[in-house]
Predict the structure.
Amino acid sequence: MAKKIIIAIDGWSSCGKSTLAKELAKELGYLYVDSGAMYRAITLYFLRNHVDWTDKHEVKNALDAISLEFILNEKSQLGEMHLNGENVEYVIRDLVVAEKVSDVAAIKEVRKFAVNQQQQMGKKKGVIMDGRDIGTVVFPKAELKIFLTADNAVRVERRFKELFEKNPNVTIEEVKSNLEMRDYIDSHREESPLRQADDAILLDNTNLTADETTQKALKLVKKVMSSN
Ligand code: DC
């Protein structure tokens, strides 16, 4: 049996990271971890409990009260984010959370809290994790690092379609401005900003279908596996 590896997928918002990661996980029988869901769940907790995240003490107390767990959905065979025992997988995708998540994810203590747990999940390898700092900070020694990208307009269109299915009141302008704002904050923050790791492979899927993207990535996986 092939040796298990860690696959890190980073990139801009809505460029298909989670779609690719889920497909690869299915193909390889690996665990998929959506690291963004952790930052979203923390943000949801902060919003619900009116935590002033500019106050270090409030952040510390809030983090002490947060338990995050991915619990397998038997039907989809994917982990769903649970916050203090509540399934929040659906509600964390809301625009209300998306509007604040980049601010919360920029907080040093929040990152430490999440990265610690992410590194634990990778201990046994056989993991595919997507996010913004997976190849640079969480798993700097990951055997395969993919940096996914796509043109802005394509990314806005994709996210709009996804959100519109859940909420027909959402507008394309709202989605566009949220995406631009998050990309800016995520790539300009002081703590582990989004950037392509030096040894990451750039994969632009602007003109690729989800399946074509998966096939390209699978070729990269096979190459790495055969040399490990
Ligand atoms: O992948 P996503 O859109 O669900 O991520 C939500 C936000 O969380 C994103 O705007 C930036 C932040 N994030 C991060 O800072 N580091 C990660 N590893 C994953 C997400």
